[in-house]
Please model this.
Amino acid sequence: METTLYEQVGGEPFFERLVDAFYEVVATDEILRPMYPDDLVEARRHLVLFLVQYWGGPSTYQEERGHPRLRMRHAPFHITKKARDAWLAAMTTALQSVRGELTDEQFADMTSYFDMAAHQLRNV
Model:
């Protein structure tokens, strides 16, 4: 039986490290920061739970928040090419911070997913 990426990387603690690194960039980014609430605690938690579920972990995100519906959840924000690129740069920085914990294939899979998601969520 094939293990999920969630299991391969050691579960939720890996995704917490990734999301913490992502939000370190968001906190000081002039394009991204205004799109987030003043308190980033819940946003961090939601992203951790979403990524955990997406990569094969527990479905806590869906149990608490329902179907991810990413386009709908992001619709209130004007996600321009510049915002998309800033988000992707922040996530790339975060991925680089945990690069040593990933195989080349895992890194490529995650990079590919985040690239696809960023492009799909652009709405302006």
Residues 10-121 form a domain with the Globin-like fold (CATH 1.10.490.10). The chain has a mean pLDDT of 96. The chain has one domain: 10-121.
